[in-house]
Design brief:
The chain is mainly beta. The chain has four domains: 10-156, Barwin-like endoglucanases; 165-261, Expansin, cellulose-binding-like domain (Immunoglobulin-like), CATH 2.60.40.760; 268-402, RlpA-like domain (Barwin-like endoglucanases), CATH 2.40.40; 411-497, Expansin, cellulose-binding-like domain (Immunoglobulin-like, Sandwich), CATH 2.60.40. Helices cover 7% and strands 38% of the residues. It has a nine-stranded antiparallel β-sheet, with no helix packed on it. Strands 28-27-24-25-26-23-22-29 form an eight-stranded antiparallel β-sheet, with no helix packed on it. The chain has a six-stranded mixed barrel with strand order 2-6-3-5-4-7. Helix 1 packs antiparallel against helix 4 (259-266). Keywords: Cell wall, Membrane, Secreted, Signal.
């Protein structure tokens, strides 16, 4: 997949500046508004909405969402945008939680109520900038009894787990596509669609985040070109396979860049900004990535364990003796240093599943790519080809660590023998990597495990015949207690998947 960009880098900078100053600013980048809440304590009343994202739990938006007044909603063009909202404690000390802010995604519309004045119940009447927030999000900045609070807000980049998602709706010769889980600017300016038997066809906004086209595309693999409101265009090549059906959803493995990263990309990554580091990347494993199976993290068959082909082996500087297993990185080819970047290439997100060992027989700039102190990614070939030209073999990159998006909960595979347990912990979200693990049998206290190798943790305990609980602490410091995830009838080599996952 590739990303194309405007030939005028300054246009992106202009967007960032104007986006921050859409409304009269109080302090640099911040504007004044107000906020109420709706949807109940579990935000169940926020489902659906004028953007069409449906069940916000399932579609990844969660409870940090808001319905925007018409001044902000812009007839649905703002769907998916993210805002940092803080209670204006200086204006209302009684009901504000001082020093608190929350980031929400626009998922709904708060309609005007012209029977009430804008300062007495008609909170969403033009020209008011108002956020009707999901109750759990609102309670992070305000005191429940307040009901409505003055706020300061600013537009921010959206951070999403996984790639952009396309849900295929419509019938026969009418295509209605919901485009969701959009990072970066969060909102979409234009979309085109192409079947394997057609040319590119522009789509138009039907409502909210739904885009339409009167096209007969059943039985064809489908490619989309999505332009966000920052001017960045990403091409999702054949993201929908030929066997698709109406009602199905397909998630890509690529995302739009953050608002300020768009400025960075337009400038060819020169210089790298805070949060991005310089490194290099090669590829291995073959066109189907079958040669990447196994690896020094111990995840085994990466197809079956959910890691797929978006993986990489890390040089020892990054691998950290296995402590980095499961971490996720966003990688972009540094076009300011090489002509071997895939034309217009964007960024791809990979998971660390292997180590790339040093080759002391070769110089680090001539074959010993993984020699210390180089930060190097030996990526699976399919992942690498998203950003690099095959013939190059090696490219300079910029990379940053990002949150891992995983389907389902943390998985435990019980290995070992007799009184020795060797537990492989996989499918870890959040930071992806684990700091410490404890295990508890029905008849034992908590027992500290130690890292044996990669993602495998060990202890010497007689636990056969007991249900097992785990306490897992991520490298971000979050601890999850997963009680009795392994039943008493477990056997060595069996795997058990929890319904719990790291949230940050």
């Amino acid at each position: 997949m590739e990303i194309t960009r405007s030939s005028k880098p300054w246009s992106f900078l202009l967007f960032v500046v104007t986006a921050a100053s859409r409304f009269p600013a109080t302090t640099a980048g911040w504007s004044k508004g107000s906020a109420t809440f709706y949807g109940g304590s579990d935000a169940s009343g926020t489902m659906g909405g004028a953007c069409g994202y449906g069940n916000l739990y399932w579609s990844g938006y969660g409870t940090r969402t808001a319905a925007l007044s018409s001044a902000l909603f812009n007839d649905g063009a703002s769907c998916g945008e993210c805002y940092q909202v803080a209670c204006d404690h200086e204006s209302e000390a009684r009901w504000c939680l001082p020093g608190k802010s929350v980031t929400v995604t626009a998922t709904n519309f708060c309609p005007p109520n012209y029977e009430l004045s804008g300062d007495d119940g008609g909170w969403c009447n033009p020209p008011r900038a108002h956020f009707d927030m999901a109750q759990p999000a609102w309670l992070r900045i305000g005191i429940y009894k307040g009901g409505i609070v003055p706020v300061l807000y600013q537009r921010v980049s959206c951070v999403k787990q996984g790639g952009v998602r396309f849900t295929m709706g419509g019938f026969e010769r009418f295509l209605l596509v919901l485009i969701s889980n959009v990072a970066g600017s969060g909102s979409i300016k234009a979309v085109w669609v192409k079947g394997t038997g057609t040319e590119r066809m522009p789509m138009s906004r039907n409502w909210g985040a739904h885009w339409q086209s009167p096209a007969a595309l059943v039985g064809q693999a489908i490619t989309f070109g999505v332009t966000d409101t920052a001017g960045q265009t990403v091409v999702f090549q054949n993201v929908v396979p030929a066997w698709w059906r109406f009602g199905q959803a397909f998630t890509s493995n690529i995302q739009l860049l953050a608002l300020f990263d768009v400025v960075l990309v337009a400038a060819c990554f020169a210089p790298a900004r805070a949060g991005w580091s310089q490194g290099s990347a090669t590829f291995y494993g073959g066109a189907d990535a079958s040669g990447t199976m196994g690896g020094a993290c111990g995840y085994g068959n990466l197809y079956e364990t959910g890691y797929g082909t978006s993986t990489a082996a890390l040089s020892s500087v990054l691998f950290n003796d296995g402590a980095s297993c499961g971490e996720c990185y966003q990688i972009a080819c540094d076009a300011s240093k090489s002509t071997s970047c895939e034309p217009g290439a964007g960024a791809v997100t990979i998971t660390a599943t292997n180590v790339c060992p040093p080759n002391w027989a070769l110089a680090s700039n001539n074959g010993g790519w993984c020699n210390p102190p180089r930060a190097h990614f030996d990526m699976s070939q399919p992942a690498w080809l998203n950003i690099g030209v095959y013939k190059a073999g090696i490219i300079p990159i910029l990379y940053q660590k990002v949150r891992c998006s995983k389907q389902g909960g943390i998985r435990f595979t019980i290995g070992g023998f007799n009184n020795f347990e060797l537990v492989m912990i996989s499918n870890v979200g959040g930071p992806g990597s684990i700091q410490s693990v404890s295990i508890k049998g029905e008849k034992t206290e908590w027992i500290q495990l130690t890292r044996n190798w990669g993602a495998n943790w060990q202890c010497n305990a007689a636990l056969v015949g007991q249900p097992l609980s785990f306490a897992v602490t991520s490298t971000n410091g979050q601890t999850i207690y997963i009680n009795d995830i392994v039943p008493s009838w477990w056997k060595f080599t069996m795997s058990f998947t929890s319904n719990q996952q790291f949230t940050y």
